[in-house]
């Protein structure tokens, strides 16, 4: 069967060759696919690298944008610096402004409600006796407050369990964030209150009973709030504490902050009723009788206790609401009632004229505090009235008026020779001192002492700039006694005056 074997061998050879050819084709195809995959992988890797680069660029731009936003700062119309979406608090007045913005549901800037914004404290602040809280029951604080490690001192209305914690500052019924803030609460002494809106009156009415032993200043700011209930509460607190020396309550109506409403006369009558409620029935008639002599509105009432006297100070403002008349013979009144130097004094009413500088400080809140001092150094106590602060181009002072005890009449009499504006009270040295300047060329220290029963300027030390014979500027220091020049010095430096006259070293304000 040799032919058959040959055929089988040929077939096997053909199959083998076919197999080899197929293997070659398969290897070739795999090689082509591998190259194609490698090319696609390279393309994909390149695209991924490009995308990663774009992402990095985006992140860099975003970081730069955020950095730019955080660095940029500007001042809002409401008086706050804004930086990186946070409103910065630097002063006590900003805190008081923020209280009014939040309580009045106002915006700190357009589109940003004050109650939900973010704030950061940048200084230790002390609001003194001003009553402070952020948010009300109707307008809760829902924002963020970062104390940045600083301390905030002031008078804070009570919150259960939070009298000395940061929470005492806030009124909220929603989520908020407070951090890094320390609180010092000094509410047990005296407090200053103000109300420009009715919601503020409602807050005061709620919390005032918690301050029943505190002396209180109450400022009515504008034509809106109804303060009758507050006046009744303060009157009750006065009756409770009137036996304590140096205790006081007072109310001031300041109408200058807003336009005069159409019902101004009606509102002034409500203010009159509230203020006379505080004064009490024993002094209301004196106030009414005085107002029939003066055309004006009742602006201020203060009750206080000093020694054995009850002092009721009241002020009637005349003229325009924005520019009251404080010239000429205008003034305020002091009712004295009680016992003094073994004499009974029954509702003696003194008229106290305004100081010369009063017109410079009409808008400044005054309180007319009365203090016992031996003003004429006769061994008997008199009355010194601290009117408050005033100033002008020549300097800044505290304003004073005085009444001395007259043994002959058993009454107090107004003592006009006491200096109106002084910086330093030195009754232990039987003198008072004032420092003033006129521009940059003249500066002086004045010493007032008692001479023949009246205050006179007994010493003066004045610095002036003049020219010598060659036209060169020189500093001259002249010492006066009773307005007579005693000696003049040419100074090489202004600090020499402190060495020459150390007893009159009052060139810088304390």
Topology diagram in text:
Layout: H1 2-71, E1 73-75, E2 81-83, E3 86-89, H2 92-103, E4 107-109, E5 112-113, E6 118-121, E7 125-131, E8 144-155, E9 177-185, E10 190-195, H3 198-207, E11 215-221, H4 228-241, E12 248-254, H5 264-279, H6 281-293, E13 297-306, E14 309-317, E15 331-340, E16 343-353, E17 369-373, E18 382-392, E19 395-406, E20 411-414, E21 421-422, E22 424-426, E23 431-438, E24 442-451, E25 454-467, E26 473-481, E27 484-491, H7 496-500
Parallel strand pairs: 3-6, 6-8, 7-8, 8-9, 10-11, 11-12
Antiparallel strand pairs: 1-2, 2-3, 4-5, 12-13, 13-14, 14-15, 15-16, 17-18, 18-19, 19-20, 19-21, 22-23, 23-24, 24-25, 25-26, 26-27
Tell me what the structure shows:
With 510 residues, this protein is of the alpha+beta class. The chain has three domains: 74-185, no CATH class; 190-422, no CATH class; 426-510. Helices cover 27% and strands 38% of the residues. It contains seven helices and 27 strands. Strands 1, 2, 3, 6, 7, 8 and 9 form a seven-stranded mixed beta sheet that branches. Strands 10-11-12-13-14-15-16 form a seven-stranded mixed beta sheet, with helices on one face. A hairpin with a 2-residue loop joins strand 18 (382-392) and strand 19. The chain is extended and about 160 Å long. The mean pLDDT is 83.
């Amino acid at each position: 069967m040799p032919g058959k074997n040959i055929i089988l061998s040929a077939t096997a050879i053909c199959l083998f060759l076919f197999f080899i050819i197929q293997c070659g084709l398969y290897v070739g195809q795999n090689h082509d696919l591998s190259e194609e995959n490698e090319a696609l992988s390279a393309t994909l890797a390149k695209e991924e690298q490009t995308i990663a680069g774009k992402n990095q660029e985006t992140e860099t731009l975003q970081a730069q944008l955020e950095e730019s936003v955080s660095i940029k700062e500007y001042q809002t119309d409401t008086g706050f610096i804004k930086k990186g979406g946070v409103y910065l608090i630097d002063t006590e007045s900003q805190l008081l402004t923020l209280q009014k913005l939040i309580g009045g549901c106002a915006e700190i800037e357009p589109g940003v409600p004050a109650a939900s914004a973010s704030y950061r404290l940048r200084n230790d602040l002390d609001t003194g006796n001003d009553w402070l809280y952020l948010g009300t029951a109707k307008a809760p604080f829902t924002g963020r407050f970062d104390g940045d490690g600083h301390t905030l001192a002031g008078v804070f209305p009570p919150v259960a369990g939070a009298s000395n914690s940061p929470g005492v500052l806030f009124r909220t019924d929603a989520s908020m964030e407070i951090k890094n803030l320390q609180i010092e609460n000094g509410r047990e002494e005296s407090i200053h209150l103000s109300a420009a809106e009715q919601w503020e009156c409602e807050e005061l009415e709620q919390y005032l009973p918690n301050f029943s032993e505190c002396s209180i200043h109450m400022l009515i700011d504008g034509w809106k709030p109804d303060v009758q209930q507050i006046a009744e509460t303060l009157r009750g607190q006065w009756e409770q504490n009137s036996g304590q020396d140096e205790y006081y309550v007072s109310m001031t109506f300041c109408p200058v902050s807003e336009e005069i409403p159409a019902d101004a006369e009606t509102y002034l009558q409500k203010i009159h009723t509230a203020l006379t409620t505080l004064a009490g029935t024993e002094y209301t008639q004196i106030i009414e009788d005085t107002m029939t002599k003066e055309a004006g509105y009742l602006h201020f009432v203060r009750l206080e206790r000093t020694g054995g006297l009850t002092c009721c100070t009241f002020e009637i403002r005349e003229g325009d609401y924005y520019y009251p008349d404080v010239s000429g013979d205008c003034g305020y009144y002091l009712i004295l009632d009680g016992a003094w130097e073994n004499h009974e004094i029954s509702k003696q009413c003194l008229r106290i004229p305004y100081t010369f500088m009063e017109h410079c400080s009409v808008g400044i809140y005054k309180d007319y505090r009365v203090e016992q001092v031996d003003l004429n150094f006769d061994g008997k106590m008199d009355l010194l009235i601290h009117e408050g602060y005033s100033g002008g181009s020549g300097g800044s002072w505290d304003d004073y008026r005085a009444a001395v005890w007259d043994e002959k009449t058993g009454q107090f009499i107004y003592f006009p020779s006491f200096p109106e504006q002084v910086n330093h009270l030195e009754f232990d040295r039987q003198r008072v001192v004032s420092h003033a300047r006129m521009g940059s060329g003249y500066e002086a220290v004045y010493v007032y002492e008692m001479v023949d029963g009246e205050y006179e300027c007994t010493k003066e030390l004045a610095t002036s700039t003049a020219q010598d014979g060659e036209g060169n500027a020189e500093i001259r220091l002249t010492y006066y006694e009773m307005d007579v020049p005693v000696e003049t010095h040419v100074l090489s430096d202004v600090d020499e005056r402190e060495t020459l006259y150390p007893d009159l070293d009052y060139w810088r304000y304390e």
